[in-house]
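Work Package 4 report. The design task specified in the project plan requires that, given a folded chain encoded as structure tokens, an amino acid be chosen for each position. We show below one input record used in the internal validation round.
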């Protein structure tokens, strides 16, 4: 870590240590006395197995004095829970519970449980906060992270499924939701169905009983001590129960107006689809990009082509159901490790949040200058007409996102999809011609190749200037 190697961002909330994310790894300093417990865990057969299983991030010990320092490998393109689909939330919750179960085998447990402990390597979750691992007191079988797991995993999924609260709203709720917030909004019948009964209704009833004037307040009794094997059994039952609550809270996968878009391309003939597909595949094979951003990825057809060409891909779309479908379809596929699906609106990208807006980086802060190829296929007319972003601004942002190449599709005003989105506003968008498109983009790119399809749409391979 040289003096000029400034950190991307630094964590500070964990009393046990601090993490700095740098260009060559994530560097962690562990404070005493927490270092002794972590050193006991690192290098155990269990820790090695979890790392090899890609459940837990690897940890390299750099030094032990004057403080324990660890280095973790970087996960390709870090993401946050408010950018995930419901299926990704469920996968992150399942990983947390399964990791706890595995740790219990050797007398360890997680001392906290939040989605912010999880990143995604492609479509697969990985636990990255090694300081969450602690010795379990099996004679007192209480998982102290139970409440945090409910607030940060179960209740956001419940609010999304039953109340329609967007998962993206958790950007402002780092510590999740309280039962009172959900309870005062949830319909009466829904309060008595799982998972609301266990996570909202019963906790609220107990809280009200304790607040009654006639209720006597006494110190909580000390937990009853049990044999370690019995304690492990009780903790496993607790984790299994939480797993059932997560499954009850998770929404049923649904289709959306866009999730079937690729199968209903009425504005492309079969020949157009084949020609577009071949054009992009050939360019990917020639360019061999290492990092690709697929803007408006939809079903991920071109994300998969980029992965087949050897690239790591971030596939973004504004439609949550589409992103969720892509994540589900990636499960168990050869591309699961290479494609990260995220719900991102490029016209309103994720902002930086947290203390001094430095705890969680914005999408653009993570993305600008990160990709050597950006795909913008059949998406610019949406940015122009739906989001009302000027052409000059789109071209400028595209030049900042890619360090080298851009494959972009121009959709003319005569296109049925263009007309559908236009909705009678022809007079104010007369300037949106292919000539104007090229005028704006040629400020930042040179044209390497182009292909016009029979439907009038044109594909351009552009190379960034400078």
């Amino acid at each position: 870590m040289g003096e000029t190697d400034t950190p991307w961002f630094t964590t500070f909330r964990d009393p046990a240590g601090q993490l700095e994310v740098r260009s060559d790894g994530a560097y962690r300093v562990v404070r005493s006395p927490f270092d002794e417990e972590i050193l006991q865990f690192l290098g155990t057969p269990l820790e090695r197995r979890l790392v090899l299983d890609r459940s837990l991030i690897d940890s390299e010990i750099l030094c032990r004095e004057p403080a324990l320092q660890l280095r973790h490998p970087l996960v390709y393109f870090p993401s946050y829970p408010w950018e995930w689909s419901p299926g990704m939330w469920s996968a992150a919750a399942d990983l947390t519970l399964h990791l706890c179960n595995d740790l219990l085998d050797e007398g360890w447990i997680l001392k906290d449980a939040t989605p912010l402990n999880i990143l995604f390597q492609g479509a697969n979750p990985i636990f990255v906060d090694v300081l969450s691992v602690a010795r379990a007191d099996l004679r007192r079988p209480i998982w102290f992270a139970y409440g945090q797991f409910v607030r940060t995993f179960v209740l956001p999924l419940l609010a999304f499924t039953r109340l329609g609260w967007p998962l993206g709203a958790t950007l402002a709720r780092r510590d999740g939701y309280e039962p009172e917030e959900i309870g005062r909004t949830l319909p009466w019948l829904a309060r008595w169905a799982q998972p609301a009964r266990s996570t909202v209704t019963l906790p609220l009833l107990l809280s009200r009983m304790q607040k009654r004037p006639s209720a006597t307040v006494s110190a909580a009794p000390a937990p009853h001590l049990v044999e370690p094997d019995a304690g492990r059994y009780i903790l496993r039952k607790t984790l299994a129960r939480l797993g059932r609550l997560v499954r009850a809270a998770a929404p049923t996968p649904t289709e959306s107006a866009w999730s079937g878009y690729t199968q209903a391309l009425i504005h492309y003939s079969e020949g157009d689809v084949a020609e577009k597909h071949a054009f992009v595949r050939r360019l990917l094979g020639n360019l061999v990009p290492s990092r690709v951003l697929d803007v408006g990825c939809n079903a991920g057809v071109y994300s998969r082509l980029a992965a087949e060409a050897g690239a790591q891909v971030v596939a973004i779309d504004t439609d949550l159901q589409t992103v969720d479908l892509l994540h589900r379809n990636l499960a168990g596929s050869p591309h699961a490790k290479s494609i990260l699906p995220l719900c991102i609106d490029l016209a309103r990208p994720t902002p930086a949040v947290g203390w001094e807006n430095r705890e969680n980086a914005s999408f653009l802060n993570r993305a600008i200058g990160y990709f050597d190829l950006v795909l913008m296929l059949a998406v610019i007319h949406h940015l122009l007409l739906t989001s009302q972003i000027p052409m000059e601004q789109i071209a400028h942002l595209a030049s900042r996102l890619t360090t080298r190449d851009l494959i972009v599709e121009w959709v003319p005003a005569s296109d049925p999809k263009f007309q559908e989105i236009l909705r009678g506003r022809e007079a104010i968008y007369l300037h949106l011609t292919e000539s104007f498109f090229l005028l704006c983009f040629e400020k930042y790119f040179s044209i390497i190749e182009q292909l016009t399809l029979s439907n009038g749409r044109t594909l351009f391979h552009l190379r960034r200037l400078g």
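Residues 262-464 form a domain with the Rossmann fold fold (CATH 3.40.50.150). Validation will be extended to a larger panel in the next phase.
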